[in-house]
């Protein structure tokens, strides 16, 4: 088998592209850090890849709003190419700013595949300011709360860092949340021991009360840290799995004696092995 | 048409900006402000209908899930919204949101010609007119960069540029025979040159039989500024040290820096011989040392004090942006891997009523500086991994902002070389009227007028532009497209081109520089300090490929001249010759600065005693007070706002421990994810010791930086250090004297430790003067402040150690000797005591201690290690315990103290003599570590520590308390870890 080709798509202001490409390479893929301008010049370039990853950073400075300008280019010039890519049983991953981009581009709400007319799409969900009103870097505990995502197979809980200012999921009305639940799209939630208790009572880990800061670090609705599309082939998450490729990246490694690989690598392996 | 799209949080969404304003007003004591609502708005000019403006909001500007918008036509005629306050940027101030919005709107097929942003506020509450004015000018805006419009916006047009008609200007300096006329020109022209320098310039142009043009005079002033030439410290200094009025030492320096700090590096390199690991020191924009077989590592630390005093956000923002460009402009360009930032402020709870005129509140300064650093570092994708904050009210009018950057450079790229014929290429941001006179302004004393005189020197950065430039430059470097590079910092093109062309000559075509807006004169173009610009030497045969590369990533590049072989700087504007100066006069024509420096050695005085220490004294409250003192207290509020993990190299984070909230001694960063070798970054600084003796302050700062570095695992035989002096007005001999004495310490200690200085910088004239309420002139000088930054290395990152206690049942050993050195200590600070001895350094012993600690870490014998600094042993053990969530019990009678036997040499020591527990608990003696050792490793640890003063002072425990026992096993500190942690976390938990 030839290694799956990964497009790590960088825009002006993207800044996690190098370590994200490194993660895919460690997982067995071949990763290109492709500049968005190349894709805008020639949208069909995208089709030579099996995996598209929009990495973290501050695309266009997050001016206007996190990920907004990049997302409008996906909605606009890249619309057709993106639909073709998604229809071809390929994978899309958005991390942090990448999550903001793909969410605001509508890729998680089925827009890319189903809606030919971009104007028919209405934004009902967004990533907005943390409740604290501040940028925050800290490690969080996550729980996989739906079996739907290709990227999260075999992963139950994981610790990874977040580093963002606009990571809180908000929706226009409650029906959006119900739809996401029904379709198994709520893939990752911020978690703690209390959440385990609450979930065993409610029977649904996405139906528990809001956890307090810092365990839910931004006040995200239903403690959502990551969302999939309905197919499970598109995943967006605020935390950074590419920052836990090695044990020494974990804040507790000098305490626990942890050595070797970090747990974030599994997510990238799952993506690569989808094409195995 | 001009439209305003006003965007407000929806009814149930949180108004973060409004809440921030409310909180800030309250912190200034304005309680009558009941509520603030805020909105952001875009002013959009172009061929647009109201429906178009609405579309702009819908498709791009407004997040419909959490925001709502309304469209207003401008100028606003109705006064229905008279309660609204608008805050707009002064024309020409960097506004990247507006720039990007304009581009993105154009992509939506909207005919937009210009965009500006505005913030809007609605204030409610029974505010008096004075309070309202204070809220407008101090809380919601900063008039250095912004202006406030109350009521409806009457704007009609966003056009910024003006027409420019070329006219050459000259200055009749040859006629200025009177000294005071020359000095008037120096001050009013914002040249800030000294008399001898002005005379030299006059005489030079007399010899040429012509007057200088305005641009020539400016070029000379930039090049000769303190900021660019370090003329005071590199000047002739006559230093006299006295004691009781008697001269005890006298030194005549021809070049003080060269003879002290540089000289230390020279002798260390000689001692190292073939093992010399310095690559490039004190000559390029950053120092370079070896790292591994493929890469070297660069480091630079700068200050940006005066701009941060006037506009904290912009000053700190561009301070970090500027220092990142230093490694980018070192050799052929380095890749930044982490930042370090150290700040000095007055107390954040300083009484707002007692603020001198023209001074921003220290809390506002602190919040602005932290945000400025955050937004630049985070957006550049460079982790901020190390830092410190010091508080002292003498920083009130003149805060200090140190920003540093560490970067990796391939081993064959550490030297650039300009050849005649290479094109001068400007890359990155455009040139505007911003930052004019920044280089010369930094030499001036701050006053209440500074804001209005020098507002132009304050800027806002655009980190994304710099990131784009970085991406392109690294690619161009690896394709060998250019031969030399430097950054545009202070002095702008003038300094950059002047330095690059020093050996060759250069001709510059000023009209070729791309401008932010029209109307700049040729001189303004030349000395503008607009941000995010780099200057490169590109051989003609590579220019097409280089320009194509820049274009492909949206980076602007322009050929603005050519390097020549004439050894002259030639400046042209549209083929008109506007300036012609020889490189020789520019770089070597400055007359030496000659200064007197004096230092009076004080008689050592005993520390005043707080109150008699009795057998029953309990020190728990003292310990908690020190933990809660601002310098010691947790800085988590700041650290968490910085991305300290981007790039994936984080090994030891700034916060460590079982809850990730303990204070790490240093950061360990892995700059290359395919190698196990690590960098260690730490710092040391102790202005309080300087009040007693600047020599021991400097020595202690070096020792502290090294301790921090070694404590996490750095190899003490390969630590590079940097000096950053921030001092008051060195024209006063006694102020310069303290600086010389500190430099002498730097030399002595660096040589003894084998830690070369590889780069450094000084910032003088850190004083603030104002007229007090009695009409008298008051001047506040900062305490002499030396920051030492240490860059260490660790062979394998898995050897790294953190400071948090790991498990109960382990031994706690104190390594190093504890002396009665409470002078300048935090114990004295909380007790309001003065006097005492500042901590000395015993270098012979220190070198052995560092080496032994490193050996023990390498052998895996140490579970946790923490250096002893502010608050001494008591604070160190408390921090280790609450960070680890593991209890500790120690006994002071086991602490190693200096030997009292007659005839014992300075490094001898003994145990079991606790005359005064205060000193043992809180003395800040240097070169000490508290380490946690497992019982099983105790024997091996003891073997490594042979001949090293150390003692096992206690053990870790399973209960959640700290117990410290004095003589006869009596508890003198006893407290729960939770209470200790709370004391430490509460003060700066903003």
Key terms:
heterodimer; A: 276 residues; alpha/beta; nine-stranded mixed sheet; B: 990 residues; seven-stranded mixed sheet; 42 strands; globular
Describe the structure concisely.
The complex is a heterodimer of chains A (276) and B (990). Chain A is α/β, with parallel strands linked by helices and 276 residues long. Chain A has helices at 17-26, 36-41, 68-75, 79-87, 97-104, 111-114, 174-182, 193-202, 253-256, 265-273, and strands at 5-10, 30-35, 51-54, 91-95, 125-128, 136-144, 157-164, 168-171, 186-190, 224-228, 234-237.
Overview of the molecule:
The complex is a heterodimer of chains A (276) and B (990). Chain A is an alpha/beta fold and 276 residues long. Helices cover 28% and strands 22% of the residues of chain A. In chain A, the strands form 2 sheets. Chain A has a 9-stranded mixed β-sheet. In chain A, strands 5-8 form a two-stranded antiparallel ribbon. The radius of gyration of chain A is 17 Å and the shape is globular. Chain B has 990 residues and is an alpha+beta fold. In chain B, 32% of the residues lie in helices and 26% in strands. In chain B, the strands form 9 sheets. In chain B, strands 17-19-15-20-18-21-22 form a 7-stranded mixed β-sheet, sandwiched between helices. The longest helix of chain B is centred in the last third of the chain and has 21 residues. The model of chain B has no long low-confidence stretch (mean pLDDT 92). The chains are: A alpha/beta (276), B alpha+beta (990).
Number of helices of chain A: 10
Beta fraction of chain B = 25-35%
Structural class from helices and strands of chain A?
Answer: alpha/beta
Radius of gyration of chain A: 17 Å
Q: If strands are numbered along the chain, what order do they take across the biggest sheet of chain B?
A: 17-19-15-20-18-21-22
Q: What gap, in angstroms, lies between the N and C termini of chain B?
A: 44 Å
Helix count, DSSP H or I runs of 4 or more residues of chain B: 30
Looking at the structure, what is the overall shape of chain B?
globular
Question: Biggest interface pair, residues each?
Answer: A-B, 55 and 62 residues
Strand content of chain A: 15-25%
In terms of structural class, how would the helical and strand content of chain B be classed? alpha+beta
The strand count of chain A comes to 11
Low-confidence stretches of chain B: none
Largest sheet of chain A: 9 strands, mixed
Shape of chain A: globular
Distance between the termini of chain A: 7 Å
Widest β-sheet, arrangement of strands of chain A: 2-1-3-4-11-10-9-6-7
Report the mean per-residue pLDDT of chain B as an integer. 92
């Amino acid at each position: 088998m030839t290694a799956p080709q990964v497009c790590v798509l960088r825009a002006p202001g993207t800044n996690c592209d190098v370590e994200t490409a490194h993660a895919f390479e460690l997982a067995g893929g071949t990763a290109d850090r492709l500049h968005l301008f190349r894709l805008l010049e020639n949208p069909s370039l995208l089709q030579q890849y099996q995996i598209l990853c929009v990495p973290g950073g501050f695309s266009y400075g997050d001016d206007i709003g996190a990920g907004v300008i990049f997302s409008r280019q996906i909605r606009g010039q890249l619309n057709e190419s993106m639909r073709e890519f998604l229809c071809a049983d390929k994978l899309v991953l958005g991390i942090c700013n990448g999550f903001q981009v793909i969410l605001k581009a509508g890729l998680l709400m089925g827009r890319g595949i189903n809606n030919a007319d971009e104007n028919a799409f209405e934004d009902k969900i967004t990533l907005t300011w943390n409740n604290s009103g501040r940028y925050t870097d800290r490690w969080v505990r996550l729980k996989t709360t739906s079996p739907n995502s290709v990227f999260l197979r075999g992963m139950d809980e994981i610790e990874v860092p977040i580093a963002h200012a606009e990571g809180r999921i908000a929706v226009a009305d409650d029906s959006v949340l119900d739809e996401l639940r029904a379709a198994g799209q709520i893939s990752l939630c911020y978690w703690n021991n209390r959440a385990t208790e609450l979930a065993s009572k409610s029977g649904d880990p996405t139906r528990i009360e809001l956890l307090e800061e810092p365990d839910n670090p931004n006040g995200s609705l239903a403690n959502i840290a990551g969302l999939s599309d309905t197919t499970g082939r598109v995943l967006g998450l605020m935390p950074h799995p590419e920052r836990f490729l090695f044990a020494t990246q974990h804040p507790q490694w000098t305490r626990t004696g942890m050595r070797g690989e970090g747990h974030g690598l599994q997510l990238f392996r799952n993506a690569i092995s989808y094409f195995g | 048409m001009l439209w305003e799209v006003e965007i407000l949080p929806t009814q149930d969404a949180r108004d973060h900006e409004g809440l921030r304003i409310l909180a800030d007003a309250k912190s200034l004591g304005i309680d009558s402000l009941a509520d603030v609502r805020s909105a952001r708005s875009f002013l959009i000019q172009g061929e647009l209908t109201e429906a178009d403006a609405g579309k702009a909001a819908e498709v791009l500007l407004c997040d419909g899930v959490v925001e709502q918008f309304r469209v207003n036509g401008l100028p606003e005629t109705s006064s229905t919204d008279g309660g609204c306050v608008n805050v707009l940027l002064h024309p020409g101030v960097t506004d990247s949101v507006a720039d990007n919005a304009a581009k993105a709107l154009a992509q939506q097929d909207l005919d937009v010609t210009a965009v500006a942003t505005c913030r809007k506020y609605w204030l409610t509450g029974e505010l008096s007119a004075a309070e309202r004015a204070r809220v407008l000018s101090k809380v919601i805006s900063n008039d250095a960069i912004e202006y406030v419009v109350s009521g409806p916006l009457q704007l009609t047009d966003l056009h910024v540029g003006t027409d420019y008609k070329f006219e050459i200007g000259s200055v009749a300096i040859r006629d200025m025979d009177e000294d005071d006329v020359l000095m008037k020109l120096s001050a009013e022209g914002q040249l800030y040159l000294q008399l001898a320098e002005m005379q030299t310039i006059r005489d030079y142009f007399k010899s040429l039989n012509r007057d200088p043009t305005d641009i020539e005079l400016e070029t000379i002033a930039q090049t000769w500024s303190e900021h660019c030439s370090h003329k005071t410290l590199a000047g002739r200094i006559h230093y006299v040290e006295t004691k009781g009025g008697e001269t005890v030492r006298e030194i005549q320096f021809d070049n003080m820096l060269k003879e002290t700090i540089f000289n230390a590096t020279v002798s260390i390199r000689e001692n190292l011989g073939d093992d010399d690991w310095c690559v490039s020191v004190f000559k390029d924009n950053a120092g370079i040392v070896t790292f591994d077989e493929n890469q070297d590592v660069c480091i630079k630390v700068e200050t940006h004090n005066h701009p941060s005093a006037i506009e904290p956000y912009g000053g700190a923002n561009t301070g970090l942006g500027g220092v990142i460009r230093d490694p980018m402009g070192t050799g052929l360009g380095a890749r930044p891997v982490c930042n370090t930032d150290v700040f000095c402020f007055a107390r954040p709870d300083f009484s707002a009523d007692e603020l001198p005129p023209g001074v921003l509140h220290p809390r506002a300064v602190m919040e602005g500086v932290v945000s400025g650093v955050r937004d630049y570092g985070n957006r550049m994708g460079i982790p901020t991994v190390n830092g410190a904050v010091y508080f002292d009210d003498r920083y009130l009018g003149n805060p200090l902002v140190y920003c540093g950057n560490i970067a990796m450079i391939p081993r064959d790229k550490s030297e650039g070389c300009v050849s005649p014929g290479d094109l001068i290429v400007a890359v990155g941001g455009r040139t505007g009227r911003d930052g004019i006179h920044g280089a010369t302004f930094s030499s001036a004393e701050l006053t209440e007028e500074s804001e209005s005189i020098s507002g132009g020197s304050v800027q806002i950065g655009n980190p994304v532009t710099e990131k784009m430039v970085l991406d392109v430059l690294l690619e161009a470097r690896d394709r060998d497209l250019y031969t030399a590079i430097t950054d545009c910092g202070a002095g702008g093109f003038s300094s950059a081109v002047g330095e690059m062309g020093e050996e060759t000559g250069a001709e510059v075509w000023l009209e070729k520089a791309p401008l932010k807006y029209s109307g700049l004169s040729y001189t303004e173009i030349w000395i503008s300090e607009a941000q995010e610009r780099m200057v490169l030497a590109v051989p003609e045969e590579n220019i097409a490929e280089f320009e194509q590369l820049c274009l492909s990533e949206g980076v602007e590049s322009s050929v603005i001249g050519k390097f020549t072989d004439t050894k002259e700087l030639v400046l042209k504007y549209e083929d008109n010759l506007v300036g012609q100066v020889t490189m020789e006069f520019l770089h070597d024509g400055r007359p030496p600065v000659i200064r007197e420096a004096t230092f009076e050695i004080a008689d050592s005085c005993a520390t005043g005693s707080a109150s008699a220490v009795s057998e029953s004294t309990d020190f728990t409250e003292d310990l908690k007070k020190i933990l809660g003192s601002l310098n010691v207290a947790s800085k988590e509020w700041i650290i968490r706002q910085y991305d300290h993990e981007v790039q994936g190299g984080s090994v030891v984070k700034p916060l460590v421990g079982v809850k990730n909230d303990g204070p790490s001694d240093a950061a360990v960063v892995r700059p290359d994810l395919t190698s196990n070798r690590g960098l260690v970054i730490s710092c040391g600084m102790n202005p309080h010791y300087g009040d007693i003796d600047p020599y021991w302050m400097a020595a202690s700062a070096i020792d502290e930086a090294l301790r921090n570095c070694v404590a996490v695992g750095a190899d003490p035989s390969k630590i590079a250090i940097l000096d950053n002096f921030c001092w008051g007005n060195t024209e006063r001999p006694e102020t310069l004297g303290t600086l010389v004495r500190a430099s002498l310490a730097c030399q002595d200690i660096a040589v003894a430790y084998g830690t070369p200085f590889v780069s450094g910088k000084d910032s003088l004239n850190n004083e603030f003067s104002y007229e007090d309420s009695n009409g008298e002139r008051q001047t506040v000088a900062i305490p002499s402040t030396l920051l030492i930054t240490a860059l260490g290395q660790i062979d394998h990152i898995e050897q790294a150690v953190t400071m948090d206690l790991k498990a109960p049942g382990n031994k706690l050993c104190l390594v190093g000797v504890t002396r009665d050195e409470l002078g300048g200590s935090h114990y004295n600070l909380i007790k309001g005591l003065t006097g005492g001895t500042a901590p000395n350094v015993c270098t012979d012993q220190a070198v052995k201690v560092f080496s032994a600690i490193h050996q023990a870490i390498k052998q895996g014998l140490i579970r946790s290690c923490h250096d002893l600094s502010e608050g001494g042993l008591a604070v160190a053990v408390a921090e280790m315990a609450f960070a680890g969530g593991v209890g500790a019990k120690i006994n002071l009678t086991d602490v190693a103290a200096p030997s009292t036997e007659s005839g014992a040499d300075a490094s001898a020591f003994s145990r079991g003599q606790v005359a005064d527990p205060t000193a043992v608990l809180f003395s800040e003696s240097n070169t000490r570590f508290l380490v946690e050792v497992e019982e099983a490793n105790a024997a091996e640890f003891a073997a490594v520590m042979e001949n090293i003063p150390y003692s096992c002072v206690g053990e870790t425990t399973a209960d959640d308390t700290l117990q410290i026992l004095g003589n006869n096993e009596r508890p003198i500190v006893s407290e729960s870890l939770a209470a200790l942690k709370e004391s430490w976390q509460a003060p700066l938990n903003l």
